């Protein structure tokens, strides 16, 4: 089973139990389309009985994910929101969640508009402020929900510290690890109980699949989540499982390259006169620079920056050539997003602005283009934006 126990992360991405198919030798996981499985005994059934409950292709992906995050069980869902929502089903009526205030817009919507109807309470806090976190705890607090670095202002939360607070109160820590992936950050090793992902982003990495992931370490929690995955039924289809596995193979090299370019671009934007603010935890002046260095391998491939006004931001976006201007992140091509109208469109304006998500803020997910080409592109677009000639 664990031939790969001692390999480094990069090697594990390729050399795992699904390296080749045991029956045929095929060096690619077979896409098993069957929705049901023949049972050869009258009353004792095999491990696979029905596709929603378990499917060999999904199982291969789930096993890989568990392994990469350092957990015991992984679960693949139809989207990041399906994974997050299913994990929230661990809660019951009357339970309370302490949430990071700059949480992903879809998670914000799920908690405030859906879970609230089922009697689940919440408090949003700035999770970089541990006193505020402690003050938000109630007798019925069952989950601490962390997203780090956060979206889109790249604030860094101390996973270990939050996990300790959670343990003291008998609550779980959920960490959305979408921005860094296990290649750069392993929340379970820092004390978290559930790691969540939008696998739509870096894990698959090619803007060609919508998928979600949950990984846990504790066996009992794994059984509860397996039960919920099967009950709620938002499982990932087999074609998409295969696409995520295909993407995973290059996760490390993709991130290495993108992080290198992101670092260059963060410095480029910082020294540019027309850029008001740069948010990137790899910059020394970032308030949680040291914490980021301690709990993750590096600062990742996503950064945000703010221009002087909405008008200039609009002109800048209209003149940028290389990145696609789109929702999403974590792909081989650079993606420029406008959080106020895209990822955080679901958040009321006042709430957005409280979180620093102004109408002049742009988020950049750095892909695999050459850094010089991106810098030239941004230099030109900034020049156009700030030029008085329309
Ligand atoms: C995209 C995203 C999600 C939601 O995932 P989907 O796959 O779009 O459902 C959740 N968290 C973060 C941080 C994300 O970027």
Automatic annotation (TrEMBL):
EC number: 4.4.1.13
A Pfam family matched in the record: Cys_Met_Meta_PP
BP GO annotations: methionine biosynthetic process; transsulfuration
Keywords: Amino-acid biosynthesis, Lyase, Methionine biosynthesis, Pyridoxal phosphate
Keyword check for GTP-binding: no
Sites of N6-(pyridoxal phosphate)lysine modification: 201
Cofactor: pyridoxal 5'-phosphate
SUPFAM superfamilies assigned: PLP-dependent transferases
Any one of the GO CC terms: cytoplasm
GO molecular function ontology, one term from the record: cysteine-S-conjugate beta-lyase activity
InterPro entries cross-referenced by the UniProt entry: Cys/Met-Metab_PyrdxlP-dep_enz, Cys_met_metab_PP, PyrdxlP-dep_Trfase, PyrdxlP-dep_Trfase_major, PyrdxlP-dep_Trfase_small
Protein family: Belongs to the trans-sulfuration enzymes family.
NCBIfam families in UniProt: PRK08064.1
Name of this chain's protein: cysteine-S-conjugate beta-lyase
Organism: Robertmurraya siralis
């Amino acid at each position: 089973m664990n031939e790969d126990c001692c390999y480094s992360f990069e090697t594990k991405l390729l050399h795992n139990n699904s390296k080749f198919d045991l029956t045929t030798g095929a060096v690619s996981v077979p896409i098993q389309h069957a929705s049901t499985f023949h049972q050869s005994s009258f009353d004792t059934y095999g491990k696979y009985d029905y596709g929603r409950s378990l499917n060999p292709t999904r199982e291969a992906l789930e096993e890989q994910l568990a392994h990469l995050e350092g957990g015991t069980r992984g679960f693949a869902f139809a989207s990041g929101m399906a994974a997050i929502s299913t994990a929230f089903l661990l809660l019951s009526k009357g339970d309370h969640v302490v949430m990071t205030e700059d949480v992903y817009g879809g998670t914000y919507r799920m908690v405030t508009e859906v879970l609230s109807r089922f009697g689940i309470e919440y408090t949003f806090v700035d999770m970089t402020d541990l006193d505020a976190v402690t003050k938000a705890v109630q007798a019925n607090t069952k989950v601490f929900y962390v997203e780090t670095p956060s979206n889109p202002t790249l604030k860094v939360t101390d996973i270990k510290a939050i996990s300790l607070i959670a343990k003291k109160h008998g609550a779980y820590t959920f960490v959305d690890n979408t921005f860094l992936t296990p290649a750069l950050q392993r929340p379970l090793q820092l004390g978290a109980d559930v790691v969540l992902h939008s696998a739509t982003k870096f894990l698959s990495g090619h803007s060609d699949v919508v998928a979600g992931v949950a990984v846990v370490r504790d066996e009992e929690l794994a059984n509860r989540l397996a039960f919920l995955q099967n009950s709620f039924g938002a499982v990932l289809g087999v074609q998409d499982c295969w696409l995520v596995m295909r993407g995973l193979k290059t996760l490390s090299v993709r991130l290495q390259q993108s992080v290198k370019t992101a670092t260059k671009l963060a410095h480029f934007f910082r020294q540019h006169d027309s850029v008001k603010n740069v948010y990137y935890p790899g910059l020394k002046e970032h308030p949680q620079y040291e914490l980021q260095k301690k709990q993750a391998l590096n600062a990742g491939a996503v950064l945000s920056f703010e221009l002087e006004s909405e008008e200039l931001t609009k002109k800048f976006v209209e003149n940028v050539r290389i990145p696609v201007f789109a929702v999403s992140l974590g792909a081989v091509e650079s993606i420029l997003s406008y959080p106020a109208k895209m990822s955080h469109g679901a958040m009321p304006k006042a709430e957005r602005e409280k979180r620093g998500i102004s109408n002049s803020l742009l988020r950049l997910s750095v892909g695999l283009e050459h850094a010089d080409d991106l810098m030239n592109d941004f230099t030109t677009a900034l020049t156009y934006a700030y030029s008085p000639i329309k």
